[in-house]
Amino acid sequence: MSLEPIDPETALELYLTDKEAELAESSIQSHKYRLKHFLRWCDKENIDNLNDLTGRKIQQYRLWRRDDGDLSVASEKTQMDTLRVFIRWAESIDAVEQDLSTKVRSPSMTPEQNTRDEMLDTEEAEAVLEHLAKYQYASCQHVTVALMWHTMMRVSSVHALDVDDYHRDEQYIEVRHSPQTDTPIKNKKDGERLVALSDDVCMLLDDWLEDQRPNVTDDYGREPLVATTQGRANKTTLRTYVYQATRPCFRGADCPEERDPEECEAAIKDQQAFRCPANVSPHAIRRGSITHSLNSDLPDNVVSDRANVSPAVIEQHYDRRTEKEKMEQRRDYLELL
């Protein structure tokens, strides 16, 4: 086989463009983020042609990246698995030797290692929402955090909602995949669903729409449900809302790191809130909400449908009930027989 020369930067651009047809924008950005480290390494090693890659060089990259990023086992596996996909694609355009992808090694992981424990528990979630209801009622931030907690939605789903997706009379919200107008959701069409809302959440949305929501449209003339004065709140803004609201100092709780809120950059500057070591990401809200629903005896299949995630994935990645808690819940069902 005759290889065709191509530099790493051009190859990555072509790869990401090719993947746009099959991956959500968030996944594209994740691949771009992980592979930019590979580009850094290529530059460091003066590799300006992917034809020169070998299995040994890829192993050298793996060891360099592990040390450079101080990666956990899970992070190393994610990054090397993404590199393998990229190298397999490079094989298809004759940029690297055939079967080079089989030489991309990543660590094996136990089920315990392949899960993440970060979670907003019920008590903390209630404290955050109580604070928002008292001091920032029906604000964009309040609506965002409340929707994430009560509906288990991902950031992309909250970002995609329009005003007319909220059906106040029937008390539900419709999640739709609209990539043609820049609001794709994870799982694409399979992620579309109707999500029932409680009386309290409907009251919050009603007050937001009637009193607080700016009268704006997005670049496509749609009316975003979660909006700022500039239009549809972007996903970075939604994540920032979560990082801000879940800082312990935000709600007046003590800092577990014993930092002084008047000197801590993460406390002083909202845009630096992600640097707080004690707050959580949006996915931790989703994980906490799923666990809360399971603890509240909501059947597994109902949680699965509502959260748009398979029962197997819930079991491995989201369910944080202890074995004893699961046993006691089964005991309650037995007593009904």
Count of runs of 4 or more consecutive helical residues: 14
Secondary-structure element order, N to C: HHHHHHHEEEHEEHHHHHH
Helix content: 40-55%
Total number of beta strands? 5
In round numbers, the mean pLDDT is 88
**Content-based structural category:** mainly alpha
State the CATH superfamily name of the largest domain.
Intergrase catalytic core
Spatial order of the strands in the main sheet? 1-2-3
Shape: globular
CATH topology (level 3) name of the largest domain: hpI Integrase, Chain A
CATH architecture of the largest domain, please? Orthogonal Bundle
Distance between the termini: 68 Å
Low-confidence stretches: 111-116
What is the domain tally? 2
CATH class of the largest domain: Mainly Alpha
Largest sheet: 3 strands, antiparallel
The gyration radius over C-alpha positions equals 23 Å
**Beta-strand fraction estimate:** under 5%
In short:
The chain is mainly α. The protein is built from 14 helices and 5 strands.
Description:
The protein has helices at residues 8-19, 25-44, 55-69, 73-92, 122-135, 140-151, 155-160, 199-212, 235-245, 265-268, 282-295, 300-307, 311-318, 323-334; strands spanning 166-167, 172-175, 193-196, 227-228, 231-232. It starts with 7 loop residues before the first helix and ends with a helix. The strands form two sheets. It has a three-stranded antiparallel sheet. The protein has two domains: 8-103, Orthogonal Bundle (DNA polymerase, domain 1), CATH 1.10.150.130; 122-283, hpI Integrase, Chain A (Orthogonal Bundle), CATH 1.10.443. It has 337 residues and is mainly alpha-helical. The model is unreliable at 111-116 (pLDDT under 50). Helix 6 (140-151) packs antiparallel against helix 8 (199-212). 32% of the residues are buried.
